[in-house]
Amino acid sequence: MTGGRGTPGYAAPELWMPLPVTHKCDVYSFGMLLFEIIGRRRNMDVTLGGSQQWFPIWASDKSEKKQLYDLFITCEIEEKDQEVAERMLKVALCCVQQRAETRPVMSLVVKMLEGGLEVPEPPNPFTHLFSGVPEGGDSLTRPAWNVVGSYWSSSEVTKSTVVTSGTPLMKKYDITYASC
Questions:
Q1: CA distances (Å), origin 134, targets 63, 129, 177
Q2: Assuming Cys at both sites, which of 5, 62, 128, 144 could form a disulfide with 71, CB separation 3.0 to 4.6 Å?
Q3: Are 122 and 90 in contact (CB under 8 A)?
């Protein structure tokens, strides 16, 4: 690919980097769509002050600080809909993880939204945007999604300093390059 495609902020990070593009790109974009549904607005709104300008980061921060009531009030989410909104928010946070392998597959996203699967507490997907904060916070591991039949499990993916995926030519000759 010679250039990025898609809407910045909605397209998965791997579309803008020299990384393999997979079906997980759609999962990322769907997560961004879920944020718009929860927030009842576009994700970026420059007319709002400070931290609320980019809704996904603001919502993630509210979730991490256990301040969802503030989010529900701001987004005018009625009490009867708050449980569904919280589930949607957790699923959205799972979908927009920086690394593709830490995002669930779409079939699991659907099951989580329908209530057929418990939604795990997702790590903050935006820590990589803040200088001095390593991806994944203090931990060097991130959840990965595995499907066995109709069951799912979350395992850990260790952050590696070597990228082993790449072009077919790189795979053929077992060429790796260090990531930054």
A1: 19, 9, 20
A2: 62
A3: yes
